[in-house]
Batch of 4 targets.
Target 1
Amino acid sequence: MHYPWWYVPFLTAPMLIAIIAVIHVIVSHYAVGGGLFLALETQYAYRTGSRAYLDYLKGHAWFFILLTVVFGAITGVGIWWIIGLASPLATEVLIHTFVFGWAIEYVFFVIEIASAFIFYYFWGRLRPKTHVQIGWIYAAAAWISLVLITAITGFMLHPGSWPGNRTFWVGFFNPQFIPQVLARTGGAFLLASLYVYLHASIKVRDPGLRDLIAARSARPALAGSGLIVLGGLAWYVFLPASAKAALAAAAALNVLMVLIFAITVAVFIMLYLGPYRNPGWLSPGFAILLFVFGVGAFSTGEFIREAVRKPYIVYNVVMGNQLLVEEIEPAQQRGFLETGTWTRTWMASRYPQLMQGAEVDETRLPALPEDDQRRIGQVIFTHQCNNCHSTQVGYSALSHLMRGWTPELIRSVVGHLNESTFFMPPWVGTPEEADVLTRYLSSIAYPRPGGMEPGPGR
Amino acid sequence: MAILKVLGFTLHLVPMNLWFAGTLLAMSLRHNRNEHARRFSHRLMDQMPIIVAAGVNFGIVPLLFAQVAYYRVFYPATILMAWPWLGVIAAVILAYYGVYLYAVGLRSGRMTPVRGAAGWVGAVLFIAVGFVFSNAFTLMTNVPAWAGLWQRSSVAGAPVGTALNVGDPTLWPRWAMVFGLALMTTATYAVVDAGLFARRETEAYRRWATGFALKLYSAGIVWFAAMGSWYVFGTLGADVRQLLSGRGLVVLTALTALGPALPWLAIAAARRGITPVRALTAGFLQVVVLALNATSRQIVQNAELRRVLDVTAERLNVQWSPLILFLMLFAGGLVLVGWMIAKAVEATQQPATAKS
């Protein structure tokens, strides 16, 4: 633990990452797919001379810019903010590995913002050819930003041979790169069409124009669904074994996986029967339903992508307990409280009698009164377990997970964390530290629900 | 790396200064008796949504390189004040949409009380965001304060993220100093806007804008000098002051302090008749002032940190091929953006063919 751990009651700090990330991807994929939609359709509208369609596209471009250029951009910065707060060690690794990846992304952001504003604010004043060219510049820049950031998210799930050869390009072209680019590109196509349907179903009164919009956006949406399935399958094939096992082992992930495929199939069928075959079906209710399904699938997909990384933040590089993989063994020998900069400082300020010089002497822990042992156990819990578990109430609360557990059972599990559950990091600490953590956990574990037969121990 | 950070920060400072002081100024002038003042307020707020969107994106590079170089202090400092720091995201989103609502009111000619209030909300939030940023970057170098803040706001040794660096004497003058600099940039913007973009405005407006800019810039200089003196002579450590006045840096320090005189003179010259060249000269000189300021701040930051951490001693592992690719794409990107702007400027000469 090089950095302080931010205590967020109920949710846990990493859940804030998930919340902001889900909000962001719902807009950022539209920022990519919507750019392609605007470029392609503006070109089509100019070619066919459809004034009504051009007017609609201008209205859509306004909605698009209002949502993506600021809300999408700021929530993207928000992800950066929150990962630095909730996962500083992994962020440090990512920043140092991909600093110029992000710098290149910045170049494309600037191109995006300039082209988006010029595309919209000079609508009707630019020559059609130039207008379309600027639309395509936006679309290309936005897609390249997607590719760049996907390399980094793919790296977190499976950095490939990077741990042995720590260069930018080895990390960039990781095994998850192409699968995730395919899936996210498909997602961008699909989500853009769903936004278009939502917007058009509410704003467009002319049935002919609405049918045209429905039909024009159906093919990219269907192609997007196909890419999602293709990318999703490749994603699964190139998952590390631990992630595949986590998918199979966790009941919640099983359900979510089924859900995401079911929703994708449902969206595909609805798109085929609706906008593709029967454009006239596009009503606000139908569009809202499609949109809700699409957003549901996206949110589920992001949650699964985050969840299967456990026990790592960056596979085989950074553990969920905020330690580098190579730091685990030395930390197990030195002790957890001693290893962490902030835990060691806390011990020195509260329990100077346990310090031997500047170091924490864990062998003195058993001599402390029980209350103090629990308090120190809570410090270990906060810094080693709170990444994934809240205490009594909230996300994956340990009080509920340990219902009815005896202190002996808790002590045994603590000592064999990654052996009993492969998607947990190994226990890091001395036996004395495991004892004080057990004291704390025993104090917060809820009793076994009454009335259950057979009772415990039978 | 430091060059990229300073360059990126300078680019970010231009729009950031405009929303920091400009929004508050424009909102204050919206009911001014002088019609030109109201027109200036209108023009600035009409452009503010684009300024904010550009500024947010320009902020990415300096923040990126700050994390690369100062990660050992950046993360702990921001974690100690995690909620206010995270609140910046919500505040900027709200401020942007506040400013946007206000701009919609301006453009449509229907300024409802809600739209008017939204503009004020945006102005206040931008000031608050500046306060949080000043907190974060002063706390980053104020390592001795960490223990106290952490002990006062933690659960089982884990900070709850509600600390602010308000006990740091450098915080207040630094925050205020940036406001002075922002007033100067806003004043320069008034000249650049009058000289380059306000061709459809009356000659009287353009004359008023340059006169107003000179007064505003003068006020900004006085404010900046007062707060800068408080910051340098009242709060910085003797070691840092000595460094700034030492043989190696005295020229830079003097240029940073006296640099604002150049845009002031350029604005004064523009009063004799605003032309695009004079406007651009004033704008360019203000960017130089901002760059000098960013460089000096970088030096002060390193000097303050040197008491606990030598960031220059960090082992460098230069990624040459991504660096070269970045520089090539950066250059290519500038050309592309330049081409698009040229097309946009060319288009302004064409009559509108679609309803805007």
Target 2
Amino acid sequence: MTRVNVYAGPAGFYLLRGGPGDDVLDAKTGKPAVLPGPAPAPGDLPGIRYYEIPIAIQDRSFKSDGSLFYPDNRAVEPGILTRSLTLPAPVSATRAIAEIAEHLVRGALADHPHEKAISLLAISVSNFDEQPAVQLELPLGLEDQGRRPGSRQGIARTRADRAVDAIRQRFGAGAIDYGSATTGVLRSVPDEFRRLAEKEL
Amino acid sequence: MPRVDNLSPDGKGKKTDYYEIAVRQLTQQILPPTDHFGVPTGYGETPVWSYCSALAPLPFAQGGTLYYPVFTIEARYNRPTRVKWINQLVDADGNYLPHLLPVDQTLHWANPPGGMMHRDHEGHDGSPYTGPVPTVIHVHGAHVAEHSDGYPEAWHLPAAENIPPGSPRPGPSTICSRRIPHARARSRDCGARATRCSSTRTISAPRRCGITITPLA
């Protein structure tokens, strides 16, 4: 309820003047800092130059008729699509996760052929767990074998990840770095962004 | 913000700055009516809520104190401030105004229609709430007793003509009285028993400034 009550506007200042908490010390002189002019007061004549201006910032979205916009439910907004996929087994290979994300994005685009551009793409993964013992799978040539950690392709992807991790751990993060493919039309994620995503929190 | 009075509650103690402040709905031109080149934008006026002195509840343009953003309370160190907060989200006929924005009843919220058992719970009605709006005011950084802090469950409804049956009833009249400033009910009871007209709070002189007032509930 607070969310909508605050959004509707009512908020204001309660200024307390005087008392020991009022003194802000000037960092250069060590003396109390003083504004060069008075604070606004009732009965002021026009034209006074004020130096104390309380500022409140409220962030709102509006409809074109001027009224406030606020979503009416928790479902997705028009123009926002969500797609999700639950895997039969946990994966940790970067390539597998990237492939799933790409698959979901392509599916969403195929459902909305009139959309020309994606302005923001967010991918989240959930249900993190310790790596379990991998259940090996028979080479059945399934379409999604890259996302199955026990398949030949899945194991290869995991090994590749671990090899890269081991090299970077031993020789530094710069030993193997990202490179953008220059030959295709597909552009890679900016390196700065990828490094940010890799940052230890 | 104009004061109602300078009270001395017990007749001998410190003077207290006393305000009666109502939250009301108004319509005001907030978006720019013209662009940088003077061309009309077509943006209409925005219905919003703000506060006003209950003594002068008309919009500022009509000589009142109802304006967005709201007038400022200026308090002085070591001098208590007492505020009677009034929910006046009602129309000209005294009937309650629905919320300006869609209220999702299935989230945890005040839930006035929930009865004694399910007040301050999540509701089950998937449609937006259209009843009288619960509000409670919290002053950030204020030095107040807990019953005056504006806890989310200490809300009150407007004293509207058409309050639906089953809504929280006004509490004991002393809660709304100007003479006895403190709601005696605990904060939990305030939601259940509801000081429907308003609540009065004494804000003792805090030690720091830059406090903002935010409505909760």
Target 3
Amino acid sequence: MNSALRIAVADDEQDVRDYYQRVLPRLGHQLVAVARTGRDLVEQCRALRPDLIITDIKMPDMDGIEAAEKLSREGPIPVILVSAYHRPQLFERAKGDHILAYLVKPTKQADLEAAIAIAMQRFGQFQALRKEAADRGQALEERKLVERAKGLLMKQAALDEEEAFGRLRRLARDRNQKLADVARIILAAGEDPSSPVTS
Amino acid sequence: LRVNPFLEHVTGRRPDEVWGEDWFAAMVPPGERCPAREATLRALAGEGGEPIIYPVLAVDGRRRSVEWANRALNGLGGEACVLAIGHDLSALEEAQRRALQAERLAAIGEMVAGLSHESRNALHRSQVCLEMLGFAVEDRPEALQLIARLQAAQDDLYRVFEDVRTYAAPIVLDVRACDVAEVWRAAWAQLKSSCPGRDDELLEVIDGVDPRCAADPFRLGQVFRNILDNALNAGAGPARVEIACRRTDLDGRPAIRVAVRDNGTGLSPEQRRRIFEPFFTTKTRGTGLGMAITRRIVEAHAGRIAVGEGGGPGAEIIVTLPRGLP
């Protein structure tokens, strides 16, 4: 179901690291980083930016939750936690939206397979929502710019609203630019640039 | 021998039944008769004011622990008598037993919590190595067969371990308004989904009783899964389980009484007495913790669980839950 994912794993047990090296390719994925500690995981993932992180929680020098948090601050990344602990305090710490599954050891291949599939679906949905929110934010920002540029034109060139908007659109068409970009130029210049450009 | 009605209350023996009998032969368990008799004789001789504790036998064969104050009495037609005033200690001893049990559980809980992490880690390492071994011998069916058996044994070990942990861990309830009928239906559906194809039947007798109470639905689900699992496996053929619900009260508060009866072979006297004891089981597999956990959960809800008294071929388990928690 998932196309091949580039996966990074971390666990302080050699047996478990060996296991990931064998089982993940069998599930059709590529293992790009194998870490023994939280810090090791952060360092390797900074350069590699894997598609998915699967990490133990309790490890020397930095735990998996902290490592995942550091990495997610640098860009969205899905994380599956695999731990022998199941304590409410840990669930509380694992509430960041990058944590998409929490498996309690011992786990079997089927658990891992299902967790990877669900985590990637959720992550896709999260990303779509994030993009939608960002697009809306940008559209709103652009409309504000156009409004302000329009206001400036109305004041400086004594135009009514319709005329000011018409001039903005003409400018954008003539210069082959987006309305918001023309608005940005007008606001930066603080004056009506139409005369020097069109003359 | 003359007794007052309190004896009947404690032992179920009617005064006219024991009238004129030898007290020790009639009421005291064999191993306890000597010290009891001696204390009484000392009192008759006018010495030894110390109270003595010895049990009396109830009609159902159970012992009731009683503290006796003996005093010589003159009168009653000139015969030498002893007035023995008994104070029933059974409730006190039961409370002590419970306190001790709680203490023991707390100690086990602490130990198991400490073990929990390391054991799960070890089981996980065992699990991943077993799977890797499976990859390595994929082309050898007899080796894979052995791995499957090893896996089953490991799963059993894991289950035993988790059962002990669940039993010993402190029970923290997440109480909310909860439809008990919904809970048992979900438990039934879940059990049935793991043994499809059997022609089992669940009958409900609710008769307009409001099946709601304040409870932790997840924990209550465990209660009904354990009870219904026993009911489903109580006999050889398809199970016919009846759940009857009615209003009652518990310690003066409104409560709901749910009786689960199966059509199995029923319970022996020993099973009736010991069914809620930890590690008591009649199954060849299993830890014998299911019903002990069930009792802990029901009691955490300030409820009661008991084996039904009534006749009938199958076993009946009765859960009584207060409507709202105190």
Target 4
Amino acid sequence: MDAFDDKRLWSRVREGDSDAFAALFDRYARSIHRYCFRRTGDHSLADDLMSVVFLEAWRRRSEVEPVRVLPWLYAIATNVLRNQQRATRRHRAALARVPVPVPEGDFADVVGARLDAERQMRSILEAVRSLSRLEQEVLALCIWEGLSSGEAAVALGVPEATVRTRLHRARAHLAASTFRQGTESQLLSCDPEGGR
Amino acid sequence: MNSDVYNAPEPVLPGSYLAARRAHLLDEIDRRSSRHWRVVKWFVDQPRRRRMMLVVALVIVLGGVGTALGLGLGLLGKDVAFHKRYDRGLFTAKPVSSFVYITRGTDWALIAWKSNRGICLDYAYEDTSNRFGFNGWSACGMPVVGSPPDKVFKQPPNTDLIGISMGSGNGVVAVSGPVAASVTKVRILLRDGKVFDPTIYAAPAKLHTSLRFYLLRVPSNRIRVGRPTAPAFPGEIRAVLAFGPNGTLLQRKDLP
């Protein structure tokens, strides 16, 4: 799953190879879905936004030759999240064709787990609401998704230094808030080699 | 609560979820690879400003075409309605066929129809100053070979190869008429020596005739149209000639 492999796949995608695109989907769909879920706190919305991200990636495949595919997908996802209405409107017809999921196994357990995750995520989103939009995006990409500051900079279309600054501010804001509540915060960084 | 800020939960994805979304995505990609979608994609991929310009251009073109069609259709309808309402006299021509366009422009039309008084030819043009919404002139009963006989006034068999209907209005002098099937070229001679070879149009199948029709439209500043009190009669036309294959002169009709 290295950059070279991504690049080779992407050059096939640019030529219209849907199999290569499917391979990239297999590789990165879970990450993009997770990012969308964590930014919205809503599984259903994240489902649709993830589809929109990949439809947009296919639509814009000839526009760019991304050095690394995943940060570019995060960039699309960030734009989609910023302009949810416009982005989903563009692909409204496609979303309407998404097949209705068939419940499998003990569906009640899945529903329960999804509701719990949504409740927890919404609580977190409520806590970070005081941060600016860019700070929230940096937090989500660097802390939640584990991107390096360079990758986050690509995803956000800002200089790497801005990412570091915003992350520092976000941490400071959250630390102040946590201190006020008398709990201990974790110190995490936007590590250049940050794992996912 | 904020201690959890750094530990965002994983979404819960049922086993078949990603596979279903993957299949849907590939279906959509296939759909977008179709010819129709390529056009849509090309449009969507244009920069926003160019998309706006394309939309504006499309609106202008469609508006122009729509206006042209509307005006043209309107003229036929107005012409039919006019004849239906006013051609009630005992000796006026009664239609025995549909009215059809022979040719038309944005605000004028040459319309033909068969009647109990032979072939009829109307030149009509939009005229909002007129209470009918249009104006023009009409000619029936031109005894050209191939046209239906005049059943109101008994006439000798049709022997002409060319008929003539003339008038002017809306800044244009129009000379038109039916020609027999054997005529391949029409020539109009003016008294000052000018020569015009008007276009000949086939009749639409709906008219069920072998007749064809010629039309010459000339701006009225290029041809003097008789006396000011009689502008509808182009006194400058000396003759109309009909030629057959190989340029043979078939008939010449001189005007007084």
